[in-house]
Amino acid sequence: MKRSLQDKLNQRKKEGTLRSLICLDDLVDFWSNDYLGLSKKKISVEYQEKTHGSTGSRLISGNSDVIVSFEGFLSRYFRSEAALCFNSGYDANLGFFSAVPQKGDLVLYDEQIHASIRDGIRLSFASGIGFRHNDLNDLTDKLRRASEKYDCIYIVVESLYSMHGDFAPLSELTKICDNERVFLVVDEAHSIGIFGENGVGLSAEFCKEIFARIITFGKAFGAHGAAVLGTDDLREYLINFSRPFIYTTALPVSNWQRLEKILKSDLTEEREILKKNIEIFNTLTDGIWMFSSKESQIQGLRLGNREKLQKGQEDLRKKGFAVKAIYSPTVSEANECLRINLHSFNTPAEICQLAKEIRRLYS
Description:
The chain folds into two domains: 15-35 and 267-362, Alpha-Beta Complex (Aspartate Aminotransferase, domain 1), CATH 3.90.1150.10; 65-263, Type I PLP-dependent aspartate aminotransferase-like (Major domain) (Aspartate Aminotransferase, domain 2), CATH 3.40.640.10.
């Protein structure tokens, strides 16, 4: 292999941050995004498809009445004029941000935004500038300085940040974007299914002030795929110019049939159990957490340095808990943490034992 590539691998090994594929199915799950346990739920669906595959992209043979109908259902469910499905959240972010921002435009993004959004911005012809995490003063200052320089400005946030477990100030952001040349885009990946009425997400109440919402189904809904929510014109534009949509083989019809059945299910009990588990966890770990919201199912723990973080991850795994240490470049070095995800299927006893082990790490 090329020496420069080997050098990069060796550097990761030296730092102790080399990624590898592992399976921890025999441990208690405190690391997956399956917040409501729906990936494990048996869903009875009478599949109405002619093939088990999709046969092509949606612009050729991969389209169907089922997915078109499902997109109509999504737009009604999530209070949007239109919806367009993508194969994954990564595809949706890459497809939106590589196609919509144009040369002469600016994308102002929260520094903790997901990597797929950053990749999409890099593929566009627009400029990209980060602002300090959830810092409205820094955002407004950069917006003021950029307002005369750029034709159009997009402000991009996550409603619930996937690594920090804290929330964007959506109400304040919609007011900042009250300008015909400033557009708010919200990634709702980790909030839909859990927050908002019937799990419509945190930004649904501001849907008229938000240019686009990006939702994914591989987290709380335990399925696969994603969608961009916006106007009919935005949907038509993405169909014509979003390369990850145009040139990707469509998902099979069965995926959308199962997902629609999940969305139409009553998930009140799962949400209530998850909410209770979050409360239990925060009560037992009071005084430890640094930055995560107490209402969030995502909790981040700082242990002081990378060595302690690595040891903490391994110690918890030896005790039977699947957790994940998050390192740079996924987050900045200052924000490296032990990420713990709570679920509706975690028992109070499991949460109590985990909290006990976490307190031991701090002793």
